[in-house]
Amino acid sequence: MSIELDNVSIGFGPPSNRYEVLKDINLSVKENEFVSIIGFSGSGKSTLMSLFAGLNSPDKGEVKLNGKVIKEPGPHLGIMFQNYSLLPWLTTFENIALATKQVFPKYSKAELTEHVEKYIKMVHLMSGRDRKPHELSGGMRQRASLARTLSLQPEVLILDEPLSALDALTRGDLQEEILNIWEAEKKTVVMVTNDVDEAVLMSDRIVPLTMGPEATLTEPFVVNMERPRDRHKLNDHPEYQRLKTEITTYLMNLNKEAKALKSDRKYTMPSVEPKNFTPISGRPSLRNKSSQPS
Ligand SMILES: Nc1ncnc2c1ncn2[C@@H]1O[C@H](COP(=O)(O)OP(=O)(O)O)[C@@H](O)[C@H]1O
Ligand SMILES: [Mg+2]
């Protein structure tokens, strides 16, 4: 399935004090393509992903899945946000089973178990099958979260910094697993990353997002390197070196431009006032209040 953003803009806040996060965004991701979005923190990457996922509607423009406008999340889209947390009171197996049941309600118990275990094995997490999130390491939680997203068998994966919180070794493992799954199951992927190496290793195209407000996507970098890519040999690959330098330099210049712009710009602070403000000394104790019979 293909997914595209057509002239999309979105902002937050009241008209008098609107913060335009994204402006005139155009991006078309082809079926089976792996596209990465790269940009600085706060520029609007998660907002962009929420548009792709149908979790937010654009103020202007359209989001299309296979050419059809989408307005809400649907079964074709698998979303994995960095903080898209697992339910803490359920084990890995139970978390994935709960999600699976919503998409495959007719599964028998045996079919459900088989399906869930297939995805737990796919991310190499059988050792954490019966553990709750707090009993898993960060890397294992990300695996569980990925398995849950994949278990819904979405055709398009929307991954918002899925690996950013991980140490380098675990991150490398999971990059490889995502690539293996992408190659085996032929999915369309849009992934946000803050890591140039990761973007070059994984993507067909890398699209930079400028700094906000009114952030927009710029000319993509095309990664013309054969697959599967061997991370251990990448460092010696001339194309890898070239792309890495070019993208890093480009991002550094974006950063400089944004800083120069900022020093020219006059900011108006939002007028924010608390609605029901009671000074601390006069604040009624919550505990007393709620324990009183009414
Ligand atoms: N629901 C929202 N309401 C108000 N402002 C928001 C909302 N979501 C994001 N923003 C603002 O939009 C900007 C971009 O945020 P985000 O998309 O999370 O950036 P990134 O993922 O690139 O770090 C930030 O300034 C953030 O405060
Ligand atoms: Mg973000």
Word description of this protein:
This protein is an alpha/beta fold. The protein has helices spanning 45-52, 92-103, 109-122, 138-151, 168-185, 196-202, 231-234, 238-264, 286-291; strands at 3-12, 19-29, 34-38, 60-65, 68-69, 77-81, 156-160, 188-193, 205-208, 221-222. Bound molecules: adenosine-5'-diphosphate (ADP) and magnesium ion. Adenosine-5'-diphosphate binds at residues 12, 21, 39, 41-47, 212.
Spatial order of strands in the largest sheet: 6-7-8-3-9-10
Mean pLDDT reading: 89
The CATH superfamily turns out to be P-loop containing nucleotide triphosphate hydrolases
Radius of gyration: 22 Å
Q: What small-molecule ligands were found?
A: adenosine-5'-diphosphate, magnesium ion
Class computed from helices, strands and strand pairing: alpha/beta
Helix tally equals 9
> Tell me, what is the CATH class?
Alpha Beta
CATH architecture: 3-Layer(aba) Sandwich
- CA-CA gap between termini: 57 Å
| Overall structural domain count | 1
Helix content: 25-40%
Order of helices and strands: EEEHEEEHHHEHEHEEHHH
CATH topology: Rossmann fold
Low-confidence stretches: 288-294
What percent strand?
15-25%
Q: What's the total count of β strands?
A: 10
Q: Shape from CA axes? A: globular
